[in-house]
Design goal:
Distance between the termini: 39 Å
Largest sheet: 8 strands, parallel, barrel
Oligomer: single chain
Strand content: 15-25%
Mean pLDDT: 93
Helix content: 25-40%
Shape: elongated
Strand order of the largest sheet: 1-2-3-4-5-6-7-8
Length: 598
């Protein structure tokens, strides 16, 4: 289906917004009136620019407070509308959005509203323009889509139809099934937006917290199915008011926006994307470091063994159980210390996973290869982390491990079995984009968003995982712009005995994060423990959590550069990530000079 985006959804000047929309691959745009008024370009120049960029002007908006008003006020409204119709002709726009009135002058009189909208449509038709009437969720008298449709139906003019907006419909809790009663040719336009479920005034919710479809909690796909059953075949258009998006760079935001529509179309059976390829595990994580000795010492203390050396690059393979860490000291090493630069995802179809990622607009990364290197497909996640789609030692598929010359050393058992989860800090303006990326591109299931108290602000976190928990990723974002650069990523290592793993780490010279005694006093009040158990946890800095399914025991290393490790023991099907303990851990890390992602 054709795709469109409202210019209000992007940051920058009108020219920058149009350019970003075109480069992302949109077919058309909605011109928001404020963007036009602030532009130095004449309407004819904007029309020409859109044509040069391959964009159609699908809608001009908004026209406010038109209907249901006294006669003298309506006469002024018609004069205003005629002026806007002339502007639209110069722009090349043939549809105008009219919002249901919020004016204190508006009367609760459907017959009057229908009469005045018909008069407006008659004038619009003289200019070759259609009027799409939309019910604002906070409209003074008309605030539901079915009410708006009754008025349009009563007005009975071919140049008057309705505009359906997913936010206005779903935010009020209206049943979208009734949309199917509207003839498709009277649905003049469809605007789509998602939003997190929040308890607040609907106007404030709409103006500040909309997100692209798939990034919130509203059933946008369900609504779209109802709309398509009417026979509607107009554009799918995004209208998103969001404070973060309006400060973010327009180009990446437009790409994220189009990706959301591609995923949405797939969800309703309209898309032709490569099938999802869900990862089956974490093949490796790659740390890039300017100083190998501290990183090697940390891995050694955790029980890892250096088992391989890359045949052509300064990269070492460290292993313990199914957990593998690549230590890279090449040119990409950063001055600000060790960073988590790449993740290898075990995939049943690496090439298919890469095709889907590319179809969903993930940047394909060029890879510096030496002669004989195994070809690995890689894309960039929104935060810049490189993602490789891998097959590890599987018959019939090339394995990335063939690039490494064995050292002859074998990893001995230390109780670490693999990678439990990854916690990745996101740029503050790309958190929602990352959420859609991990769900739509990687095929992970989304869990609920949580807020975590940090001594210096509130953090937001959301987890994504495969159904069996083989891959778990916790995305986090700090309190404000720039904050993500001061907080570390972390790798959680799975163990079936965190006490033994922690003691081994300490005996090998490793330092565990100290946790305040007040935490354990509170823990004793909330849970019962075996004699000496709580004292052991306090000695080692082990944190404890429990959910309806099981228990979680975990502790942390100190931070190296911008990376730290967690030792994690899940028992009896525990499903969380210890989020209840995050404020204590964050405070302890700030106190020790470490900073963290989740």
């Amino acid at each position: 289906m054709r795709t469109s985006i409202a210019t209000v959804s992007l940051s920058g000047s009108l020219t920058e917004k149009l350019t970003a929309a075109a480069r992302a691959g949109f077919d058309g745009v909605e011109i928001f009136e404020n963007d036009l008024l602030a532009s130095p370009l004449a309407p004819e120049e904007i029309r020409s620019l859109c044509a040069d960029l391959g964009l159609t002007v699908d809608l001009y908006q908004p026209m406010r407070d038109i209907e249901g008003v006294p006669a003298d006020e309506f006469a002024r409204n018609l004069r205003r509308a005629e002026h806007k119709f002339r502007v639209m002709q110069r722009l090349g726009a043939d549809t105008v959005l009219v919002c249901s009135s919020v004016s204190p002058l508006a009367e609760d009189d459907d017959a009057l509203a229908a009469y005045q909208l018909r008069r407006l449509a008659e004038r619009a038709a003289d200019f070759g323009i259609r009027v799409a009437y939309e019910a604002l969720a906070w409209g003074r008298h008309v605030n539901t889509y079915d009410h708006a449709w009754r008025i349009v139906e009563a007005a009975d003019h071919p140049a008057l139809g309705t505009c359906l907006d997913s936010f206005h419909i779903l935010a009020r809790g209206s049943d979208p099934k009734g949309i199917e009663d509207i003839p498709g040719d009277k649905v003049f336009f469809l605007q789509l937006a998602d939003a997190p479920l929040l308890s607040m005034d609907v106007l404030r919710w709409s103006r500040h917290h909309r997100v692209f479809p798939g990034q919130g909690d509203l059933d946008v796909a369900g609504l779209l199915r109802h709309v398509l059953r009417t026979g509607y075949r107009g554009p799918l258009s995004l209208e998103v008011f969001n404070d973060v998006f309006r400060q973010a760079e327009a180009g990446p935001a437009a790409v994220d926006a189009l990706r959301s529509l591609l995923v949405l179309q797939e969800a309703v059976g309209e898309g032709e994307l490569p099938r999802p390829v869900v990862p089956t595990g974490v093949a490796f994580t790659e740390l890039v470091t300017p100083d190998v000795e501290p990183a090697a010492a940390l891995l050694t203390a955790l029980g890892f063994t250096r088992t391989g050396r890359h045949r052509g690059k300064p990269v070492d393979l460290w292993e313990q159980g199914a957990a593998r860490v690549l230590l890279n000291t090449g040119p990409a090493a950063r001055r600000d210390g060790t960073v988590l630069a790449a993740v290898g995802l075990e995939s049943p179809d690496p090439a298919g996973a890469a095709r889907r990622a590319e179809a969903l607009l993930a940047p394909v990364l060029p890879r510096r290869r030496t002669t004989g290197d195994v070809l690995l497909d890689a894309v960039a996640a929104p935060n810049g982390t490189e993602l490789f789609f891998c097959a590890t030692d599987r018959p019939g598929l090339p394995s990335w491990t063939a690039d490494f010359e064995p050292t002859g050393d074998q990893a001995g058992p230390t109780g670490i079995s693999g990678i439990d989860h990854l916690a990745l800090t996101q740029p503050w303006h790309q958190f929602d984009e990352a959420a859609l990326f991990h769900r739509g591109v990687l095929g992970l299931d989304a869990h609920g968003s949580v807020d975590v108290a940090d001594p210096y602000g509130l953090r937001r976190s959301r987890a994504f995982a495969t159904a069996d928990g083989a891959v778990r990723v916790a995305l986090g974002v700090g309190p404000g712009p720039g904050d993500e650069h001061t907080h570390a990523q972390h790798i959680a290592l799975a163990t079936d005995d965190v006490v033994t793993a922690a003691r081994r780490f300490r005996a090998a010279g490793g330092q565990l994060l100290a946790v305040p005694g007040n935490y354990y006093d509170d823990l004793a009040a909330r849970h019962s423990f075996a004699p000496g158990e709580l004292e052991t946890y306090q000695e080692l800095g082990i944190l404890y959590d429990r959910d309806a399914h099981g228990t979680f025991r975990h502790c942390y290393t100190h931070t190296l550069g911008r990376v730290f490790f967690e030792l994690a023991q899940r028992d009896d099907g525990y499903r969380g990530y210890g989020a209840q303990n995050a404020p204590v851990r964050l405070a302890a890390q700030h106190g020790s000079g470490s900073v963290a992602a989740r």
